[in-house]
Write a structure and sequence with these properties.
It contains eleven helices and eight strands. It is of the alpha/beta class. Helix 1 crosses helix 10, helix 3 packs parallel to helix 6 and helix 8 packs across helix 9. The longest helix has 17 residues. The two termini are 31 Å apart. The structure holds cytidine-5'-monophosphate (C5P). Cytidine-5'-monophosphate binds next to helix 2, helix 5 and helix 9.
């Protein structure tokens, strides 16, 4: 563990981190965001950073075989999260509104492709650790508990059957007015999971000390309570502002 992964609060205590890792469509985003709001903690959507680099690579027609070029692109791609009280935060890439584009399956596939490049992952490490700010952080991703915040006090591995994840994604994208088929989504989810789990660097897998939560058939509100129950009371009290 490095010093950077252990930012401290005003009292010199390490800022607490709850990591939520898992495959695409497991409900990580919705659940982690709700848990962060309930705890009054910050939230890191690490997938959005990979998606943003994937989208920026598309905008620049970048060569995915040119690692050096991609690392430079990663460093110069600015990603801004702007809170929206009415829903999900907006994401700006280099100042340009990109929230909808970021959520497309094309962006997800681009993210998954560039996320398999170790140098790109390395270029995003410190940016992710910088989100660790008092009073606490909920970090959502694939390697939050294994690589980025190995000292996190609570680690969750959130999963659900591929069919259920495809159905959830289908509903989400349809609600956003995007035209997608359930079969196509299921195929993409299975392919993306396989790529994420088989890559040599930071593969998708539970940390040894993670608690696995299976959300198949379980309402989101119940999963939120299950995850909150894993955060010790002492952990919250000492770090949550009055
Ligand atoms: O979580 P989300 O679906 O937005 O992530 C998009 C892609 O970014 C994932 O399929 C994965 O390949 C990559 N990713 C990653 N490590 C993370 C978060 C996302 O490799 N911590």
């Amino acid at each position: 563990m490095t010093a950077e992964s252990q930012q401290v609060d005003g009292a010199g205590e390490p800022v607490p981190v709850l990591t939520v890792d898992g495959p695409s469509g497991s409900g990580k985003g919705t659940i982690s965001r709700a848990v962060a709001a309930r705890l009054g903690w910050h939230f890191l959507d690490s997938g959005a950073l990979y998606r943003a680099v994937g989208v920026a690579a598309g905008w620049e027609d970048a060569d995915l075989g040119d690692t050096e070029g991609l690392v430079a692109l990663t460093h110069r791609t600015q990603v801004q999260f702007v809170d929206d009280p009415g829903g999900e935060p907006h994401v700006l890439i280099n100042g340009v509104e990109a929230t909808s584009e970021l959520r497309t399956e094309t962006a997800g596939a681009a993210a998954s492709a560039i996320a398999a490049i170790p140098e790109v992952r390395a270029a995003l490490v410190e940016r992710q650790r910088a989100f660790r700010q008092s009073p606490g952080l909920v970090a959502d991703g694939r390697d939050m508990g294994t690589v980025i915040f190995p000292d996190a006090g609570v680690k969750v591995f959130l999963t659900a059957s591929a069919e259920e994840r495809a159905q959830r994604r289908h509903k989400q994208l349809k609600d956003k007015g995007l035209d997608v088929t359930l079969d196509g989504l299921l195929r993409e989810i299975v392919a993306r999971d396989a790529r994420d789990a088989q890559r040599p660097v930071a593969p998708l897998k539970p940390a040894d000390d993670a608690v696995t939560v299976d959300s198949t058939g379980v309402p989101i509100t119940t999963v939120v309570e299950q995850v909150l129950a894993l955060v010790p009371e002492s952990f919250r009290k000492s770090h949550t502002p009055d």
